[in-house]
Specification:
By secondary structure, this protein is of the alpha+beta class. The chain has an 8-stranded mixed beta sheet with strand order 1-14-9-2-3-4-15-18, sandwiched between helices. The chain has a two-stranded antiparallel sheet with strand order 5-8. A two-stranded antiparallel sheet has the order 6-7. The chain is globular and about 80 Å long.
Length: 395
């Protein structure tokens, strides 16, 4: 028989009041942050041009359709302390990830597209006019010659997939985003001592601030024997760890961190005209409220050596099967998810349950993550660990 209020012990009533009061205060503070953020931040989001699509959107039966978003990171090197290497930006996209969100919003996966892959870049329609295509051309030149809309047209032409939105992140603002959430955890298999590029990082698990995080995702001479491919895997691992941090209680329970993070995002992104407000971005983020962090994964497009130039690569024939899976809104499957990195369990060297997982469910096969391996010493597991180390990740 349930207790009546008069029967409830005084200490339990006190605890209940404290809990309810705390929840009410947090709700009010969060609402205040959202209101202030909308008023102060909304106008700072830079709107890009409309996408001149190369393909038509496929009809989908159901209340919602799957979404494809091209996320690009640009490295202009014009922020204070950003010019750490000889690349000098060059106007191209340093990071390109094709993010696929399932129609039921239960899963998502990002496919990294190597910047130096040789592709057939199509003619692009831009606000300034038509940009001539080139074959072969490095993938990241699409952004350099025609901005984000040309990059989208290039991806649509190469994959046959309709890209719903694009988002461009400037790495200078990336520093503020990391600092806003109190740093991001990574794990380095060895120390970095690179005076030529002014990068000095310790070995092992550690929390990096924004500046060291920028150095970490850029470093390509000491951590990864695979060069840019290793750097790309480390970037996937870092993004997974950052998202884990953003969605953790340590961030969501602190309204000031939420506001600082939103402010940093607004100051460093450019989006297509259909995402050019805080409300639209918030609506998109809300689409993930039922997505388990273990079901947000990062993989790399299948690639192979480019015969004419050993310093370049090209997408392999297996890539076409990946695009078909995305077009059909299918899961990655074992073929493509075997070496994936999950947001629930990024390879950052931390132990225990993922801090931001709504269900606490462990990762289901993140090959380079902490949950992907076991204590066994199989040849497959040994090869996986060796590949992680080659990419500059803790095995």
């Amino acid at each position: 028989m349930p207790e009546t209020p008069s029967q409830t012990p005084p200490h339990r009533r006190t605890v209940l009041r404290v809990v309810l009061a705390t929840q009410l205060v947090m709700a009010l503070l969060t609402a205040l942050v959202v209101t202030v953020a909308y008023q102060r931040i909304d106008g700072r989001i830079e709107a890009g041009g409309e996408i001149p699509h190369e393909v038509s959107k496929k009809r989908h039966d159901g209340p919602k359709a799957p979404l494809n978003i091209l996320v690009m990171g640009i490295d202009e090197r014009d922020c204070e302390g950003c010019g750490i290497d000889e690349e000098g930006g060059g106007g191209g996209s340093d990071v390109s990830i094709l993010l696929h969100i399932s129609a039921d919003r239960r899963s998502a996966y990002g496919v990294s597209l190597p910047r130096d892959a040789m592709v057939a870049r199509p003619d692009c329609r831009t606000a300034e006019g038509r940009v001539a295509g080139e074959d072969p051309a490095m993938f990241n030149t699409a952004y350099a010659v025609g901005g984000p809309t040309c990059a989208v047209q290039t991806v649509e032409s190469l994959t046959g997939l309709f890209i719903d939105h694009y988002l461009v992140l400037e790495f200078g603002g990336f520093v503020d985003m990391v600092d806003a959430v109190g740093g991001v955890t990574v794990c380095l298999p060895k120390a970095v001592n690179d005076p030529a590029h002014n990068i000095f990082l310790d070995a092992g698990t550690q929390v990096l601030d924004g500046r060291d995080s920028l150095n970490y995702v850029r470093e390509r001479t000491q951590l990864s024997v695979t060069g840019d491919i290793g750097r790309m895997k480390r970037q996937q691992a870092f993004i997974a760890s950052l998202l884990n941090r953003v969605l953790s209680a340590d961030t969501l329970a602190q309204p000031t961190r939420i506001y600082d993070f939103l402010s940093a995002v607004a100051d460093s992104i450019q989006v297509d005209e259909d995402l050019d407000s805080l409300r639209k971005l918030a609506d998109l983020a809300m689409e993930f409220r039922h997505t388990d962090l273990a079901d947000i994964r990062f993989v790399t497009v299948p690639f192979e050596a480019y015969p004419p130039d050993e310093n370049r690569l090209q997408w392999s024939p297996e890539a076409s099967r990946l695009w078909k899976r995305i077009a059909a809104d299918q899961p990655l499957g074992a073929e493509f998810s075997d070496d994936s990195i999950t947001v629930a369990d990024p390879p950052d060297g931390t132990a225990g349950e993922p801090s931001g997982s709504p269900s606490g469910r462990p990762s289901q096969g993140g090959g380079t993550g902490n949950g992907g391996g076991g204590a066994g010493g199989s040849d497959e597991e040994d090869a996986r660990r060796a590949q992680a180390l080659a990419n500059g990740l803790c095995a």
